[in-house]
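User: Second chain of the day. Same drill as before.
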Amino acid sequence: MRVLAYEALRAVGERDAYANLVLPGLLRTAEEDAAKRGGGFDRRDAALATELVYGTLRHQGTYDAVIAACVDRPLREVDPPVLDVLALGAHQLLGTRIPTHAAVSATVDLARVVVGDGRAKFVNAVLRRISAQDLDTWLDQVAPPYDEDPEDHLAVVHSHPRWVVSALWDALGGGRAGIEELLAADNERPEVTLVARPGRSTPQEIADSLPADSALPGRWSPYAVRLAEGGDPAGVPAVREGRAGVQDEGSQLVAAALAAAPLEEGPDARWLDGCAGPGGKAALLAALAADRGAELVAAEKQSHRARLVSRALAGNPGPYQVVVADGTRPAWAPGSFDRVLVDVPCTGLGALRRRPEARWRRRAEDVAGFGPLQRGLLTEALRAVRVGGVVGYATCSPHLAETRAVVEDVLRGGHAPAAQWIDARPLLPGVPALGEGPDVQLWPHLHGTDAMYLALLRRTG
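Assistant: Same format as last time:
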């Protein structure tokens, strides 16, 4: 399983792959190979590989700082494959309960296989230096004191790039305790949360289909079911049949809030998801629309993602359309819809629990790169909705430049139809700590969700 974990890390590093996409394929191949040999596939091995991959990626910044203190050259001069092996070893030594001798021995054996005997000796020497101290002792040595450089201290201790620490702290506000809780939450394994699509399944049905104590109700969403640790969505009949799906509660709340927002006098018959891929929110919106006799149009610019949307919506009880269309160059007439959602592309800083590699892949300048697209999508969404209709602007990032700044720029820019804020907080009933409004920012450490942002706007002119 350590070879498999190494292959996943190499795919992430060499091909910019995402671990949540590449790792399942590697595990399936390992299971098939075991079956061909007539042996079984131990789920504990799969769990170990998953922990090694995600744990190493989440704590990569911390481990790099420790490794740097144990080698005699800059890390940029260490071959990336060797650095991946060292990071895997560091995680076993500093982030798991694997005995020291087993962690060192197994990682050196891995090094012999993937980088050769000569470099395996180098790996052995570095790991033995790392194993001489525990994580807290290492952090005291490699992290600058908080009083001297708070952001760099937090970056090393909680394994986030400094610019991400700064951006999250600005968005969150407050003192040290809150940002430490947020950064720590980013490094925790997220729960697997399901959505029961209305009219097709219910949370109770999903819970009844699972062994006792393996399902918990959602914290905030009436459609959510949380699986106990180790729960496999593929084992849920409603998921296999497309009547339910895997979806974070934050995403469910965004769709539910848009559906619940009050309209001014007029119809409520046509809804639009303007950035529908890969289809999670669209599937929930389609089910909610069908319950009212409304139709959802799900638009996605990329054809391969539009196919994913079609798959997610298949079997919806009410009318819907999936169209390949660019939300910044709409294929529909102005004022065609009563409700519009644009969950815009962004840096993804709100989903670092699920995609930990994104924190190392993104750069501060990426934020500005998304800005024109985000503003264009919101502007066209306001044109697409009728007067009195509602637009939801959502994004999985708490960065202020991707959230409220975008909405304020569009509202005062003079290029979009006139619109006014709707207070979104009452449309998330029971959810605490939603701030001063009218928009809403969810947080992993406060709500147990991805850091989803939602602004609701009513077109007035």
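The longest helix spans residues 364-384.

User: Great, on to the next one.
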